[in-house]
Amino acid sequence: MNSNNPIINVLIVDDSAVVRGLISKMISNDPNVAVVDTVANGLLAVKRVDRGDVDIVVLDIEMPVMDGLTALPQILEKYPKIKVIMASTLTMKNAEISLRALEAGAADYITKPSSSREMTGGKDFQHELLEKIKNLAPGKLGRAPQPASAAHPKIIPTAEIVLRPQAAVRSKPRILVVGSSTGGPQALFTFFKGLNGKLPVPALITQHMPPNFTKILAQHLSKSAGLPADEAQDGELLRAGHIYVAPGDYHMRVEEVDAAKKITLNQGPPENYCRPAVNPMLRSVAELYGSNVLVVILTGMGYDGMKGGEDIVAAGGTIIAQDEATSVVWGMPGAVASAGLCTAVLPIDELAPYVAEFMDKGI
Predict the structure, then answer these.
(1) Is 299:327 a contact under the CB 8 Å cutoff?
(2) Is the pTM of this model over 0.85?
(3) Strands 318-322, 344-346: pairing kind
(4) Three-state secondary structure readout of the chain
(5) 31, 51, 127, 244: most buried by Cβ count inside 10 Å?
(6) Domains in the chain, CATH or no CATH each
(7) Dihedral of CA 62/67/68/70: which sign?
(8) 323 in active site
(9) Annotated catalytic, 181?
(10) Cα separation of 297 and 139, whole Å?
(11) Is 28 a catalytic residue?
């Protein structure tokens, strides 16, 4: 193997030989990715990882002999460093299973086109899968720095992050806003559970997820956090102590209507290739709440949240981010931190205590 051409080794697990072949062809064209094997069920996958040459497993959910949800913990018990991407079609049942898989340790998920014909022309699926594979195995690619640009800002090492000074006098936040992507569901569960059922303000979440998944995410979050959490509805009034999750395929904003703050949903153009995106949400709360906004940016690939974060800071609001060590992918939190927008950058377990104190005292 050429040391100057790092390779991420991928195992594809799917009961359809056609799907295995199509996905193999899609990702093998990338010089940094190699498909080391394809197998037809979870049991074969559990046995195959014993060769020790697998970095990423693309794991189908519904398979004979052993399904993906059964195989997942067995793979991770043997090799905790392997990253598993769950693959499923876009159904409520599979969304539920995917969320359970993320809680059980899967690193990410991807929705498969519903037919091999759609997959054959699925450039979006190919791009998304390759991005996820590369972001989940950055060590194999040496974290080579890319030229900074407006679209791809430079992410600097944690040790070089310069934090914004805390304001001498700050009023308590009147809204909590959270953005997340890859690794986000696990981080959201940990963060909101850490608030111990205390949420004196409304909380908005934009997590990069497709339809169906966001509804299931809200249900799981409500059970985990002990707080009411729902997929947001257009025109809904904001209530303190309630968590609102942006629906898949809709940007979520807050607007003032008849002197009341309400959620509005729209299908405007994707931002950072995402809908829902974090930036529209941040812009709207910066405009309405000014300095009374507290933003938390959790693990996720890409840079969504950085531009909206600039509006938050300009309005006097506060941003904190999850640190690199506890993030599955330090893209989104790394972008806001590298841009000098954060008052604090903390491990996932320390975010909730910090936020609770901030909401209590205004720090």
Answers:
(1) yes
(2) yes
(3) parallel
(4) CCCCCCCEEEEEECCCHHHHHHHHHHHHCCCCEEEEEEECCHHHHHHHHHHCCCCEEEEECCCCCCCHHHHHHHHHHHCCCCEEEEEECCCHHHHHHHHHHHHCCCCEEEECCCCHHHHHCCHHHHHHHHHHHHHHCHHHHCCCCCCCCCCCCCCCCHHHCCCCCCCCCCCCCCEEEEEECCCHHHHHHHHHHCCCCCCCCCEEEEECCCCCHHHHHHHHHHHHHCCCEEECCCCCECCCCCEEECCCCCEEEEEEECCEEEEEEECCCCECCECCCHHHHHHHHHHHHCCCEEEEECCECCCCCHHHHHHHHHCCCEEEEECCCCCCCECHHHHHHHCCCCCEEECHHHHHHHHHHHHHHCC
(5) 244
(6) 8-141 (3.40.50.2300), 159-361 (3.40.50.180)
(7) positive
(8) no
(9) yes
(10) 23
(11) no
Q: Which residue has the tokens 């409500």?
A: 222
Give the active site residue among 180, 181, 327, 338.
181
Q: At residue 232, does pLDDT exceed 90? A: yes
| % of the chain beyond a pLDDT of 90 | 76
The answer to whether the CB of 20 falls within 8 A of the CB of 12 is: yes
Query: pLDDT tens digit string along 7-25?
Result: 999 999 999 999 999 999 9
**Cα 86 to Cα 70: distance, rounded to the nearest angstrom:** 12
Between CA 359 and CA 167 the distance in angstroms is: 15
Alpha carbon 157 to its chain centroid, in Å, reads 20
User: Quick check: 61 and 98 in contact, CB under 8 A?
Assistant: yes
Q: What is the pLDDT of residues 265-292, one digit of tens each?
A: 999 999 988 999 999 999 999 999 999 9
The whole-number pLDDT of residue 30 equals 92
For residue 144, pLDDT over 50 is answered with no
Query: Are the C-beta atoms of 83 and 89 separated by less than 8 Å?
Result: no
Token pair, residue 303, equals 């840079």
Of the candidates 67, 208, 284, 338, the residue annotated as catalytic is 208
Distance CA 127, CA 301 (A): 13
Of 284, 304, 327, 338, which is the active-site residue?
304
